[in-house]
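Minutes, structural biology subgroup

Action item carried over from last meeting: produce the structure token record for MICA1 monooxygenase (Zosterops hypoxanthus). EB confirmed the sequence was re-checked against the source entry. Recorded below for completeness.
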Amino acid sequence: YPTWKRTLARRARESQMKRFCKAQAIQRRLEEIEVKFRELEQQGIKLEKLLREENESPADQHTQWTNQLLYLVQKKNNLMSEESDLMIAVQELKLEEQQCQLDEKLRSYMNKEDTLKTLEDEKAEQEILKQLVEVVNKRNVLIQLQEEKRLSEL
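Output recorded by EB:
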């Protein structure tokens, strides 16, 4: 078993573990965002009730409640934006994993001697190459989407 094959296998395992850890961190953050959404929703409901029920409250109080409500909406929008970014990151991780698997399959076909390849092997190699290009294009679309989102936020 040549050294370069062991090195490739080790690097593949390392990158897979990195993707796994990143996916776990994203999942934890998504769960935290969900909890925060519920908290903000409850706070918003309380403020809305106060605004609707307390007609004899001073105008200062109404202004303060309205400002608090707007602040909650802003926090919720920020969380939604972060959630959107995380969902894009999840899709990117899936595509990255798919790309690694296709790379590995393609490498196994390419390492085979040309004289030993059957017609089915050549067709499979071309199909894998086609799938790999599709995955790379999908990743490129995600990166462009992130860049457009970042620029629109600026």
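Discussion: The chain has one domain: 3-153.
Next step: EB to file the record with the rest of the batch.
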